[in-house]
Amino acid sequence: MAESIGGKIRNFMVAILVGLLVVAFAVWGVNDVFTARAGNAVLTVGDAEVSTSEFEDAFQRELQTLNRDNNSSVTNQQAYAQGLHNRVLQNLLTDTVIGIDADELGVGVNRSVARNVVKDIPSFQNELTGEFSEDKLNTLLAQNRITRRQFEDDIFRTLRRQQTVPAIIGGLQAPAEYATQRYNFITEQRKAEVLTLSAKAVPAPAEPTDEALKSFIDQNGVAFTAPEYRRVVMLRLEPFDLTPDLDATEEELQAAFQYKIDLGEIGSPETRSVVQITATDEETAKKAAEQLARGDDAIAVAAGLGLVDPEIYTDVIKSNILDPETADAAFEMKEGEAKSLLGSLGNWYAVGVTTVNAAVVPDYDAQKDEIRETLLTEKAKEALYDITGDIEDAMTDGLTLEEIAEKVNWPLSYYDYIDRAGTTRDGVRMRGFSAIPGVAADDAILREIFVSDLGFETDLFETSNGGYAAIRVEDIIDSQMRPFEEVKEQAAAAWKVEQTGNALDELMTELAGKLQTGEDINAVAKAVGDGASVEEIVIVRAQPPRTLGAPVIIGMLDGAVGAVSRGAGPQGQTRQIARLTEIVPNQDGLAGQFLDVLQEQATQAISSDLQNAYQQAILRENELREYPEKVKTALGITDN
Fold first, then answer.
1. In this predicted model, what pLDDT tens digit does every residue of 207-255 receive, in sequence order?
2. Is the four-CA dihedral 396, 400, 405, 407 of positive or negative sign?
3. Domains in the chain, start-ordered, CATH in brackets?
4. Which residues are CB-contacts of 330 (< 8 A; sequence separation ≥ 6)?
5. Which of 117, 96, 111 is nearest to 164 (CA)?
6. Radius of gyration over alpha carbons of the chain, in Å?
7. pTM
């Protein structure tokens, strides 16, 4: 919450406005961000909702930032596994909560204020004069197909929301003494003696009897239960089924290559920096052009001739120059040249080219294979569209999957029992290959298989690879306990681990009692013999050691000198007992930058608590509903 609400409020101008346009437009190339969205919601708060489109856009922006900052290529699936979606959802939830509160409070903002905010954004100001440039604003918005009114409306909504929270955290600052105490708290050193016990410290468990194993299996039934299996007939049509039989001509590849260039997906067009001085007549325009050609400053030229400030275009493509006559001239001249001309609206201009950035043309041969693959996939999808039309007509006529397959000359696929993960009873995962993904790699198919009724033939549904499929479940083997002989070996290994753990727990409890009565830790360890070791460890709250288990760390940080703590170690089948021997306060003073940082951290911590209470108060009156499956669907996440 501190990052989501507090960051929006405290850094409003930079984090919201400049970030919104400069970062999003320049780095991500976001288009249509203000267009009304439709579709399923990933979460709802009362009557307000966050659509899958809004979530997907926000997620992609976060992911692209992550990849750019770390020079990485993290996929949706990897980012999801790392929890990036949770951070995005929290930010969207925060925005929604603030919006609800603004509605309830009737908060409003004068639109003239919103317009003034636009004028204060540095990205819209002339580099030379520092004044707001209407042309720069219009050019930037036009490049991203966003109208001036849409942009101002968004700022209006943001300003309106911004007024709902500052009353909670406005002027909040933790006292310097609080920061000093926190510094001393997190930097004090705690010294402890630690006794670590491994599995060698206890006798190895004997082989279990069948009766003991059966009882163990009954108590841990989930681990020894076979999943539900289904036998399936499927009619599946994928683009990769057709691409081997398709081809793309050289002309088609060249056209697709040029189209990608035109879209800006690859390469970059030629850009130029251009100055345009509006003159009162032809003679004045010629004088201005002569001075520009000499290299004189455009603003000084205009001022010397008594003309208005020039229009300055920085690194623009031809279409970004408003007057077409100026655009044509600017992209015909060489760098440093200038000329006078009559504009399309009857005005005389002096136009000069200050810099020329040559177009970056990508290597066609390097792109050719990828373009061919994309083109063939698109052709395959078009061909599938025709085939699926015939299939749907056949389904309407009541034909079975077998009859449909014969009619359209397409083979059926048969799966002799698979589970929800696409794994056979022999443990083979039906992943397929990278070019031909198997059923285990397509959650859309697996989901349909396991929600369909026995014997029911589904309609065509879309697969995750852009294809279509229809299935019929032939048989179902319900989830059931595996036969004893099948799981006996697995159960015996798990039983031994449990028995060893129980023995270690008993030994740990016994030895902890001895340490609490003051016995020497080294003597205690020596009495145990093999499997017991002692070490002295220094614990600091800011960076606790990784060699200690969490229960022991907590006990050592909370206890007084002489306190004994015990618990599982950081590695499996280990136990630890620790006795706190000394607490060493930090003697260094806190001042300067360190004081400022900790004071700010303390302020943010208090602010976070207040903001969390604020959000929870709104959520108590507006029910929060989350739809994790829709999040996964929006991102194309599969459960492998």
1. 999 999 999 999 988 888 889 999 999 999 999 888 888 898 999 898 8
2. negative
3. 2-171+604-635 (1.10.4030.10), 189-217+486-584 (no CATH), 228-249+365-478 (3.10.50), 268-357 (3.10.50.40)
4. 272, 274, 313, 318, 321, 351, 353
5. 96
6. 35
7. 0.48
